[in-house]
Amino acid sequence: MRYLLIAFLSFSFFSVKSQTYFPPLTGNSWDTLAPEQLGWCRDSIQPLYSWLENTNSKAFILLKDGKIVLEKYFGTFTADSFYVWNSAGKTLTAYAVGIAQAEGFLSINDATSTHIGSGWSSLTPLQENAITIRHQLTMTTGLDDNVSDVYCTDPSCLTYLAAPGTRWAYHNAPYTLLDTVISSATGMSLNSWMYSRIGSKIGMTGLFYPIGYNNVYVSKPRSMARFGLLLSQNGQWNGTTVLADTAYLHAMTHPSQNLNLAYGYLTWLNGQASYKLPQSQWTFLGSLCPNAPTDMFSAQGKNAQIINVVPSQGIVLIRMGADMGSSYVGTQYNDTIWQFINRFDCDLGIENANIESVGVFPNPTNGTFILTDLAVGDEITLVNSLGKVITHFVAVKAGDTPLTVNCEKGIYFVQRKRNERVLTTTLNIQ
Predict the structure, then answer these.
(1) CB neighbours of 91 closer than 8 A, spacing ≥ 6?
(2) Span 356-380, mean pLDDT?
(3) Which of 11, 33, 260, 367 is least surrounded by Cβ atoms within 10 Å, i.e. has the fewest?
């Protein structure tokens, strides 16, 4: 009942939308909105800040209808510090591809070879020509992601595993080749295209920086928030059209194939019936972030770089950070953020501001631990930082349950599902 009340309260104060505010293209001014105007108590926000700090966060910003409600920096990191987006930059690339298509430089149904030439892989010419830009956007190229270096874009690293469109796999190398597609199709460098078509129109300053085989976007936190605000506005920025093709934007933020319903065009989707995670062919039933709004879509990267967009509520949320949430996408980390947000409401009282968690003792552990206070029917899933299921079971009796797992050292996530409510706890195996 309490969970339903929280969900109702969250919807009620979020659902009152007003005209969207857009910050000036230059300068540091940005209108704010007091948390109290959303019915939030400041004392209820502090537990989130403490948790973010304890999990090596660098920046956290939450916008409501474009205005800053929450903005917090941790340690020596400031509003003027630059940090990597990691794979959250994939969604930015997808946006840039959409603009290139709208301007007639390419079609996402083009074979990738049309723009970067033949021989870019180890496939036969027939196999290679079957791979399109759409396959790159949807992670369905069929190229083997079990190679020793998933970032390697050399032809020797790009080998055949399945026909395009028949297998979903989070594979970085085919994504990275989209940078070459954009440059070849438009005749402009990747950074020049990004700035002229997106950055200059929304006041976003940043650039793609080469790190090994990767091109990683780097910016200040507010530039990340600007792109999140653009994502929420259906291609418009304060009366300026950034991407006119609204059909492309709709496809980008809705299931792009039936192999992983939680994936659009290089964008993660909440509220679907099932989802897959990087480096796994396991299909998880349920929503990607069960404690978040169902219409939320996200740009997510390694170490939980996050841009969340909730169109129905005018919410944009960004998190930059390191170490914790070290999976290729910070799904469990992201869901925990929303568990805190769902307890901001003043009517719940400060005593309810801290999130409930799955009881795990001891933590850290050597692999032997106890799950406390389980109820009959509780569904328990232990996953590693890459989303691989280590163990899964349904409790058949109430009380404490001892568990021993043979795992490598690292960060894991214990997820408990009870009566459709999901809680997640970080487990440190040393």
Answers:
(1) 231, 266, 267, 298, 299, 307
(2) 85
(3) 11
